[in-house]
Hints:
By secondary structure, this protein is an alpha/beta fold. Helix content is 44%, strand content 14%. α2 (51-61) runs parallel beside α3 and α3 packs across α5.
Amino acid sequence: xxxxxxxxxxxxxxxxxxxxxxxxxxxxxxxxxxxxxxxxxxxxxxxxxxxxxxxxxxxxxxxxxxxxxxxxxxxxxxxxxxxxxxxxxxxxxxxxxxxxxxxxxxxxxxxxxxxxxxxxxxxxxxxxxxxxxxxxxxxxxxxxxxxxxxxxxxxxxxxxxxxxxxxxxxxxxxxxxxxxxxxxxxxxxxxxxxxxxxxxxxxxxxxxxxxxxxxxxxxxxxxxxxxxxxxxxxxxxxxxxxxxxxxxxxxxxxxxxxxxxxxxxxxxxxxxxxxxxxxxxxxxxxxxxxxxxxxxxxxxxxxxxxxxxxxxxxxxxxxxxxxxxxxxxxxxx
Length: 333
């Protein structure tokens, strides 16, 4: 089933303003609200409120949208037991609409807050342990966990989840998609790459899920897409560059680049042409429908739309009004 999401950017907006936009997205008909979980923003010009406090506030002010961090790293600056407790609590404010997006993190957040930035292999192994521990705690039973990286002793969530919480795992390359299929309840990726890469991601995710005894057709496949739906395309692109240039630089996701200034310096190579090539920036409805359709045909079921402004509320309302009916019609074919 097609689900349409909105990307909340706490790396750009102060928390109360961002909450107001989330309320607008819920009212406009977005099916999911995805919020980053960062300690540092991508740019010194940005913001970085605590996502779990924000999710609790938004949960009380929304009614229909699924809420999920996109994504949380539960292995370094957070102990997985704390993330288990945090997500369980949010589910009481948003029952049957709380998801948990998980990934292996960026140095921008993890090294900055802890001084630790282990290899990808270790971070992946930590995530396996973290997922096992989180799910065990969600059972509401006492958990004594003796892992290589994490330990608990008769730990128990006395407020377990009010409803099941799917774990959606980040994957931006085919190899990590195998991990998502094996350990997750869904897949979370990002746009801007070549179709063949996504074909490999979807194929590996589905194959791995089947090997784990799951039905991949019932598992959501999320993808964040950068878009601008406005007559002022130049302004929309400049907002992407101002606050999000670092996200266009692959090194930010695996190298020890740990301050917003370092991120911005790396992002200086990103210009308007790069932004345009990796998203859809157009005032034309057909352009957006065609762009999304390409990703649906690749196998994704939940496109999440990330606009950096300059008029965020206008984007939310206009995009939902103009583009959503066309996209939902595609799902009925």
